[in-house]
Design a protein that fits this description.
Elements (H helix, E strand, L loop, with lengths): L34 H11 L12 H4 L47 H10 L12 H9 L2 H10 L9 H13 L7 H6 L9 H10 L6 H4 L22 E2 L20 H4 L8 E2 L21 H9 L22 H12 L4 H5 L15
Antiparallel strand pairs: 1-2
Bound molecules: heme C (2 copies).
């Protein structure tokens, strides 16, 4: 990608292989991308030694075939504890302004990786208080000694938590999905990429009547993104989509009140980040609590203006309900299915290296 003036690129030069139309992700200055670091991150991502009891890896809740989600309504940690929320897809996570369902302050993948490793409520990987044990486990594997040396050259004692999270983050930044039928149409100009029904569904998705794209806009169908070369600081946006039935039985907002639990502002009740719709056909069930089983039911939810209608006074003004015919619903689902990127979920670069050896050993 970069001109090298006729000389071969040094072996540790990382090249993004970006789909047409995609800007390079922003990378923190203290964690530059290198092939050796990405390869190490991939190893760690799939390594169950990263959990306290050795049963679960990051990949246990973020499976490639499911666009790095887990197929469960709510995640289940290494000790069996049920997480209040559903696993998020890691497709294009490098472009997210803020991470997780409702945290405006969690901005880097390096920081985020500490959450599943060490947080105790709920337990995910269950490594709290076991930092030394984790380092010892990794040191005991000769493969890691070489990989950490290659990823963090010239650093004595490179096997440490800060470098584990750096490597994980570097791997996660490579998880870029931009080769769906929709992308082939929009970014590659292939007019035959979308079936008729998906074309019609696309018009509905971007229509004022349905308003889906008002929130699920931009390159990632998730609103505003960050990327390299972008000027200024952007703020994440959180919305209440009327999931809470505040008027009667149903979801109890006290269990997970979204952004409000961080800001303690009443108006932030039930507000969550708009997630990407890329590969959405692969990541059922839906919403932060996994409470909607299918795409059809998601559309019904929006068509009804949310669960509690006007009983929910925190709901976004964009969630106002709309009429939709059965044929239109079918078309809209076809459009959402056209966001599935088969090459992303089968790409060998993102697969489990313990099963299929990768380029670096
Ligand atoms: C027990 C299942 C589980 C495990 C194990 C797990 N995650 Fe997650 N992951 C989740 C859930 C649930 C969320 C959403 C959390 C929230 O919103 O509070 C999430 C969110 C994320 C996000 C934010 C994505 C976004 O779009 O904002 C990233 C990044 C992530 N996980 C990476 C990792 C990494 C790296 C590991 C291993 C160190 C890991 N996860 C282990 C369940 C898991
Ligand atoms: C007001 C902004 C807004 C509008 C309008 C909107 N969405 Fe959403 N969407 C969100 C937010 C926020 C979530 C996550 C809500 C939650 O879990 O609490 C979401 C979740 C989803 C999900 C589930 C994603 C997942 O990973 O679980 C799908 C599918 C979806 N929306 C599709 C649509 C479609 C189709 C439309 C148009 C009919 C639409 N959305 C309109 C903001 C919006």
């Amino acid at each position: 990608m970069h001109a090298t003036g006729g000389r071969a690129a040094p072996p540790d030069t990382f090249e993004w292989r970006l789909p047409p139309g995609f800007p390079p992700p922003r990378v923190p200055p203290d964690n530059p991308m290198t092939p050796a670091k990405v390869e190490l991150g991939r190893r760690l991502f799939y390594d169950t030694r990263l959990s306290g009891n050795g049963t679960q890896a990051c990949a246990g809740c973020h499976r490639q075939t499911l666009a790095f989600t887990d197929g469960r309504p709510r995640a289940v940690g290494s000790t069996g504890e049920v997480h209040p929320r559903s696993s998020l897809s890691l497709a294009n996570v490098a472009y997210n302004v803020a991470l997780t369902w409702a945290d405006p302050d969690l901005r880097s993948l390096e920081e985020q990786a500490l959450v599943p490793m060490f947080r105790e409520r709920p337990v995910e990987l269950g490594l709290a208080g076991r930092e030394k044990e984790l380092v010892a486990r990794l040191e005991a594997d000769g493969l890691y000694a070489g990989m950490f040396r290659a990823a963090f050259p010239g650093e004595p004692g490179a096997i440490r938590i800060g470098n584990v999270t750096r490597a994980l983050a570097a791997f996660e930044r490579t998880l870029i999905s931009g080769d769906s039928p929709y992308d082939r149409l929009v970014y590659q100009g292939r007019m035959d990429a979308l079936p008729e029904a998906a074309w019609r569904g696309m018009r509905l998705f971007f229509s004022d009547r349905l308003a889906c794209s008002k929130c699920h806009g931009g390159i990632n169908f998730a609103g505003v993104v960050v990327f390299e070369g972008m000027v200024g600081r952007v703020e994440p946006v959180f919305q209440n989509t009327g999931l809470y039935n505040l008027g009667g039985p149903g979801n109890d907002p006290a269990e997970d009140d979204g952004l409000r639990s961080v800001t303690h502002r009443r108006r932030d009740t039930g507000r969550f980040r708009t997630p990407t719709l890329r590969n959405i056909a692969l990541s059922a069930p839906y919403m932060h609590d996994g409470s909607i089983p299918t795409l059809e039911a998601v559309i019904d939810h929006y068509a009804a203006g949310g669960r509690a209608g006007d009983n929910n006074r925190y709901k976004s003004l964009l969630i106002r309900g709309f009429a939709i015919t059965a044929a239109e619903k079918h078309d809209l689902i076809e459009f959402l299915r056209s966001l599935t990127d088969e090459s992303f979920v089968t790409d060998a670069r993102f697969a489990d290296p313990w099963r299929s050896p990768g380029p670096v050993r």
